[in-house]
Amino acid sequence: MRRGDFMPAALILNRLSFEYPNGKSIFREISLSLESGITALVGPNGIGKSTFAKVLVGKLEPTEGTLHRREDVVHLSQLESPPAQTAMEYLESHGKDKGDLQQMPRGWFDDLNLGLSCQNLSGGQWMKVRLAAHWGSGFLILDEPSNDLDQVSKARLVQLLKQHRHGILLISHDRELLELCDQVLEFSNQGLEKFGLSWNEYLESRSRERSRLEEELQQAKIERQRVGQSRQQALDRQNKRNRRGKRQAERGGMPKILLGGMKRRAQATTGRVDQETSEKADTAVRVAFEKFSAQKVEPVMYLKIAEFEPVKGKTIACATDFNIRFADWLFRPNLSFTLRGDSRLLIRGKNGSGKSTLFRILMGEEWDRDGEQAAVPEQRGDLQCASVRTLYLDQKLARLDPKLTILEYLQKGADLPETELRNELAMFLFHGDQVHQKIESLSGGERLRVALAEGFIGRPAPELIVLDEPTNNLDLFNAGFLEGLIRAYRGAVLMASHDRFFVENCAMSSSIDLVG
């Protein structure tokens, strides 16, 4: 169902508000309806999109207002842990049989064995099982559904979304999926606003709005400056008249009592001029502030990479006919590549082809594949890895300690005074009391910012950056920041990403295709 068709409202919100017990308000007095089309929910990381979704599905109760659901609402969150069931058992527990599964796009299950435990599935495979389990269940809230999906699987997801007859609230930073939406809900520092526009129309509208606000702000600043200059000129003229009147009075021999009265009248006149011109100046300042406050601010990280010269000829990793065997040999054909000090190598492959496993092996982690461990893994060929300073951002950011606060976690590795460390954390958009949030309470994008902060705060710049699907949890604005960081970075980069926009903008110099 596309925009322009009749879309009965699936969810009706009336003056809905939510705030946490500590008084932090996430949204206030939202009144809108969500219809049976695709609605995109966009906004910076950490602004409240996932909280809004939890309220819609009933996991959190609104502080004020009412919410009417005309059909079941299902929320597929980013971070659902897989159960100790096979994929088929999980599907059956949600009322799906083989006939239901045939309604999914052709090839949906080609890359996974439904007899495997859900805990042994790759991130993309687990998402596909969850989508199949809940498809057709009613109104769906999909939180980053394309995370971990390869290009073939993403194309099938696009096909699936186009066919859905119920409503979908799509929380995503994936530009390919966003182009499917019928309308946009935008979370910003100004609250939540609904646009009955497609994604491209919304971008054009937002660009026009920003240009208008910037122009109005500039005009307000000019007016403030003009009023200030006029105020000073008016005061100068009045003071000049006062001095001239005083000199004339003194030359005319005016008695002191009359001179005093004249002085008081001059002061009163000067005070009136000062008040009138001050009011005009205050009005101009207020208008300028209001224009500034009306702008929608997208918080973006900022970071200057410490200058260092990579050793261009230094070999960081070298594989010669390398392979590893679990149930079967992981790579077909064997891998041969060399990663040097200033290389930028992209690893491509379908879900389950071994990209994440290769990264874990290169990082010196246990020989395992998605939870499967071999006591004596069989290896052939050769793999040599140098010891270098490395920033490794795995898909699950497993190195983060969820029980620590942001500040506690960074203090473990950064030898900096707390005040300086907090100043550095502001570059990664953690301000004030936010540094005391526990990592387990953070969104996916906020966790990625913590991991980036760990790599660059209080230590030399890394010689190697390893990125495993880094845009899974980044909003569009900070994905742009990371693109710029990677372009400016002068060391080695090893990356796996299904985000073709991101890959193109990072200017990777070579690639390897894995066939698992």
Shape: globular
- How big a fraction of the residues is strand? 15-25%
Quaternary form = single chain
| Helical stretch tally | 14
Question: What's the short story on this structure?
Answer:
The chain is an alpha/beta fold.
Q: What does this entry look like structurally?
A:
The protein has 14 helices and 19 strands. It is an alpha/beta fold and 516 residues long. It has a six-stranded mixed sheet with strand order 5-6-7-3-8-9, with helices on both faces. Strands 16-17-18-12-19 form a five-stranded parallel sheet, with helices on both faces. Helix 5 links the parallel strand 6 and strand 7. It starts with 8 loop residues before the first strand and ends with a strand.
Notable traits:
516 residues; alpha/beta; 5-stranded parallel beta sheet; 14 helices; 19 strands; globular
Q: Topology, please?
A:
Elements: E1 9-19, E2 25-35, E3 38-42, H1 49-57, E4 64-69, E5 73-76, H2 87-93, H3 98-101, H4 123-134, E6 139-143, H5 151-163, E7 168-171, H6 175-178, E8 183-188, E9 191-195, H7 199-251, H8 256-294, E10 315-325, E11 335-340, E12 344-348, H9 355-362, E13 368-369, E14 372-373, E15 378-385, E16 390-393, H10 406-413, H11 418-426, H12 444-456, E17 464-468, H13 476-488, E18 492-496, H14 500-506, E19 510-513
Parallel strand pairs: 3-7, 3-8, 5-6, 6-7, 12-18, 12-19, 16-17, 17-18
Antiparallel strand pairs: 1-2, 1-4, 8-9, 10-11, 10-15, 13-14
